[in-house]
Amino acid sequence: MIEMMDVTKQFGRTMALKGITMTIEKGQIYGFVGPNGAGKTTAMSILSTLTAPTSGMARVGGYDCVKNPKDVRRLIGYMPDFFGVYDNLTAYEYLDFYAESHGLPVNERERVIPQMLELVNLTHKTNDYVDMLSRGMKQRLGLARSLVHNPEVLILDEPASGLDPRARIEMREIVKALRDTGKTILISSHILPELAEMCDTIGIIEAGQLVAAGTVADIDRHMRGHRLLKIRLLGRQAELLTHLRAVSSISNVVAEDGHVIAGFTGTDAEQAGLLASLLAEGYPIIAFGETEGNLEDIFLEITKGVGS
What we know:
Elements: E1 2-11, E2 14-24, E3 29-33, H1 40-47, E4 55-60, E5 63-64, H2 69-75, E6 76-79, H3 91-101, H4 106-119, H5 135-145, E7 153-156, H6 165-180, E8 184-189, H7 192-196, E9 201-206, E10 209-214, H8 216-224, E11 227-233, H9 237-244, E12 250-256, E13 259-264, H10 268-280, E14 285-291, H11 295-303
Parallel strand pairs: 3-8, 3-9, 6-7, 7-8
Antiparallel strand pairs: 1-2, 1-4, 4-5, 9-10, 11-13, 11-14, 12-13
Helix pairs in contact: 3-4, 8-11
């Protein structure tokens, strides 16, 4: 549904994107994560037909973003990281303005706008002026604005930026609900844990380069070169630490918060065999499985040295 192939973008002497290549399948939520200035907004602007790449190809729904911008715009709903609102309009009037801009007739607008306000939990603010809404409400109204023409693809640039924890949770739940309707969603953030729970795939961008892509678990495993096992048991923890340090497929064994954490380089079958052997030796194990590790550490490790 979304394709970028070796896309570059240069502003004067600054290379904002350096050969970005990625594919997002229909119905996926793809999380674009990277620090401020990494190139997220530039990539999204290209996909939204707001700027053209210096080189490379970008397509949405099979349409070229440079050659067929009108076709792309019909398919997408774009929510920029900063957007203007018309403070002297009510929430309803605001959405009505944008729905009319997309060519929706009056009867269609009268049907769709209440649905959008309900989706983003703003029905009770229908007749309130935009400048009286909280930041979180304005963000949700902006999301509703990007949905009024029922696009197949949503491009959301840092939709939770500046929101308090409750508003972030509300935004996350709305995005999940939109995925359940079959929409393809590209969403960006500079905070990896914020995207991990809702996204099918994560792409980490730093200094204009896509340095890693995959599920959070895949990225974690790739970075560490192995899986992390987390074991909880009722007793004999010190004994288990000594035991695991003698296993060839185990490394970096530590005790942490009542658990034993260990790197594991074996196969799934070897992991099952390890558990069976520990139980056979009488270790009182009550939890045994993989853990994804600390997401902030993953991000810092992957981006270390990029662009320097």
